Amino acid sequence: MAKLNIVKVGDEILRKKSRPVTEITPRILQLLDDMKDTLHSANGCGLAAVQVGVLRRIVLVETEPGELFEMINPEIISVEGEQEDLEGCLSVPGKYGITKRPMTVTVRAMDRNGKTFEVTGSELMARAFCHELDHLDGVLYIDHAKMLTQDELDELYEEE
Ligand code: NI
Known about the structure:
Blueprint: H1 26-42, E1 46-48, E2 58-64, E3 67-80, E4 83-87, E5 97-101, E6 104-110, E7 116-122, H2 124-135, E8 146-147, H3 150-159
Antiparallel strand pairs: 1-2, 2-3, 3-6, 4-5, 5-8, 6-7
The structure holds nickel (II) ion (NI).
Nickel (II) ion (NI) binds next to helix 2.
């Protein structure tokens, strides 16, 4: 178990495409454990392997504390509706933007035992699925977000 460093925007690795996992090795299991520690210590709701410097198609999403989804080779298989809300990223600290995402998203992925599963999430969970899967193709939310200004950020922090 270890907390890994989170790669920040500006690092070219975040723009690279991650490769599928072909075999669940002890190293992959270790990576999943380390990513979980890293996500929890950063208080995030999602993390992609590329954010800890590993170009593999692996993401974690935990929008409800204790309800962690480990997704290997995840794919979006259906989307429905639309939402517009606030989004941030552990690789882009201190910034937030407004993005448009589907309201409901279904993802098919493999778990750590190699078993395929499907999960459907709405609102924040749907947003997190899209955000994390984008990371696997080198896409960051700042590419298509309307970023908050400093005044808007100040207001946001005041509300907290
Ligand atoms: Ni992110």
